[in-house]
Every structure is written in C-alpha cells, then in structure tokens.
Amino acid sequence: MRYGFLGPETTFTHQALLQALAEIPEEFAAADPVLVPFASVATAATDLQAGDIDALMAPIENSVEGGVSGTLDVLAATDSITIVAEQTVRIGFVLAAREATPLDQLTTVASHPHAQAQVQDWLRSTVPGAHVAAASSTAAAARDLAFLTEDEARGRAAVCSPLAAQHFGLEVLAEGIEDHEGAITRFVLVTREGRIPARTGADKTTLVLQLPHNRSGALLEALEVLSSNGVNMSRIESRPLGDFLGRYSFSIDIEGHLEDRRVAAALRSLHRLCPVVHYLGSYPRVDGRSVEVREDYADEAYDEAREWIERLSAMTTPAPHTPAEPVRSPGARTSANPLTSGS
Questions:
Q1: What residues contact 38, with CB distance under 8 A and at least 6 apart?
Q2: Which of 23, 151, 172, 230 has the fewest beta carbons under 10 Å from its own?
Q3: Phi (first) and psi of residue 68, to 5 degrees
C-alpha cells in the first residue's frame, strides 16, 4: 500500500497519517506501507485516481479556521474516491530560524496559509514589520529555510510544528505562538476502491449536495429532509461551483452510517430533491462517540413501517383492465346512447 500525504515529512498531515495507520480498519491495513509526500492535495488526488498511490490523507477542517478549501474542492470534484477513516491532530506552532535571531530583526516569516491564520494575532503583535509569505505546508516552510545559504536565511523564519523545527535542525525562537491553545485539525483518509467500512454505531457520513437552481427554500428543504429522519448534521460548508456567481455546492457531515435506516431514508429523499448528491463515504468517528437515536428513528421503526405498508399493499384489489378511452378533441359532441335516447 502506498499512502500519499501533504508533505514533506513532519507536516501535521504526516502525523495524522502515522496515527491513522495504527487505527484504520483491518481491511484497509497494509503490512509495509510506503508513505509518499505531495506538494498539494490536488496533485495527490490525481495520482490516487491514476493508481500511483492507494490512499491519501488530507486535512479537511480546523477548529479555528473551518474547512480546508483545497481538500473540499478536490473531494467535491472527484466521483471515484471514498473516505474510509478520519483522524485528528492537536495543533501547536513554533517560530524557527536557521540561527538565534532577535525577533525585531526578522523580515520574512513563511508558513502554510492555514497556519498563518492560526498565529496571525501573535505575528501582528510580536513581529509587525515582518512580511508573511505563503508555503505549501508548515514543514515545507521549515525545510526550505533549512536549505537556504546563510546569507539567504538571514532575517527569515518559519512557522511550523516543533517536530519540523527539530527535524530540519532549526533554532526555535518562540514556542506556543498559536492564537488559540488546543486547536485541532481533522484529516480524512481517502481511497479509490469504493469500499465502505462496516457500521460501528459511532459513524459519520460525508456528502456534497448541489441544490436546485433558483428555487427558493431549496437549502431549507434539504435540511428538513435530515431533520425529518432524525439525522444530525455536524458540519456544513458552501463552496462555489465556479460556473456562475451565486452557484454553490454544500459539503456536509452527518451523524450515522449508510446502513442506518434513517440515513438511507434521508439519502433517498435528497436524491429526489437535489440534482447532484455526491456520496463520499461512511466511516468510523475518530472520537468513538455513539449516536443517540430516538426510538421512532431506530432501524426497527423503519422496518416495522415498511412491513406495515407491504401488508396494506397486499390487500389492494387489482385494478380491472379497461380499454383506453378514445381521445376527444375539445368541444366534441358525445354520441347519444341508443339504449337511453328517445329516438
């Protein structure tokens, strides 16, 4: 098995993959996994579809910044991949440089845009004069800095994980620089085989919906479908479709598994309502928390209701076969019945 991740080594995605390899369902496990770093989720997804890798770990949301747009867009645009597991990593950042440098002498600080957003208050207050530059990942910012010459590295620093700073031999200038202590990023493990992990009772399902265009209340109707089946939604995010202004798809996480009757019933109704329902998978929740289901939304309630309708349907008298009436033009006169006419 070859697993792709947003690289290089020591990214938070790399950490999530290492954690997940010890926890993923047995049918997806591999004896000697090969870990392959990628510069972007889109590139890794292309290789996944081409068969060059077997699975992909990608960040999908952060407790501070919300959804990771690059991953959400890739998942929404790809029909042949399935989420089979999730993982979470607690996020902490350090400011690191090639050598000890006074903070007021820093001119450039590089990191991934999501990491920048999680330390922006600290950067503004501590190194207000430094230019903030984008990198493909936090580990890439540390690696690129480590490979610069001494003159090139002067005045430059990276926001990265403590592990990345250690791995690339950087000097830590400041620790715990995140604006929100205890921030968590959630990652998903994606395969192309279309197999769905078995229901555990503590599951999550991910969908992408496109709503009917220019129909008022369409989003409300979709949400009412979930509510009427007792399905709780834990995340919803809109992403532009890219064809016209004001056209969006909705990425949604719901509690439950495809094998749950209430989830299957909701998906059937969404399929009737929405022009596009992209099912991305049902998989175990990383926190293992079971979903509390009301009695009238339990599988047994759906099964009893179906059996009741089947019994009633069996009592229905078949309609007699009658020849079709001829089609009459508007205003045509009906011939008199010779048995009842007075002629």
A1: 4, 5, 6, 7, 44, 47
A2: 151
A3: -90, 105
Choosing among 1.10.620.20, 3.40.190.10, 3.40.50.150, 3.40.630.30, the CATH entry for 1-91+183-195 is 3.40.190.10
59 within 8 A of 91, measured Cβ to Cβ? no
Amino acid found at 329 = S
Domain 196-311 in this protein, CATH class: alpha beta
pLDDT above 80: residue 331: no
**Helix-then-strand count for the chain, H and E:** 10, 15
Residue whose tokens read 């290789």: 47
Paired tokens of 16: 């999530």
Q: How many Å apart are CA 5 and CA 20, to the nearest integer? A: 12
Length of the chain in terms of residues written: 343
Spatial CB neighbours of 210, under 8 Å, sequence gap ≥ 6: 241, 249, 250, 274, 275, 276
**CA–CA gap between residue 305 and residue 76 (Å, rounded):** 34
Q: How far apart are CA 83 and CA 190, in angstroms?
A: 4
What is the CATH code for 94-175? 3.40.190.10
| Buried/exposed code over 132-147 (b: 16+ C-beta within 10 A; e: otherwise) | beebbbbbbbbbbbbe
Total Cβ atoms within 10 A of residue 121? 13
Could you tell me which residues come within 8 angstroms of residue 163 by beta carbon, excluding any fewer than 6 positions away?
10, 15
85 DSSP β-pair partners: 189
Q: In 3D, which of 177, 119, 111 has the Cα closest to residue 143?
A: 111
pLDDT in tens, 264-302: 999 999 999 999 999 999 999 999 999 889 999 999 999
Answer yes or no: is pLDDT of 14 > 50: yes
Q: What is the pLDDT of residue 327?
A: 58
d(CA 174, CA 102): 11
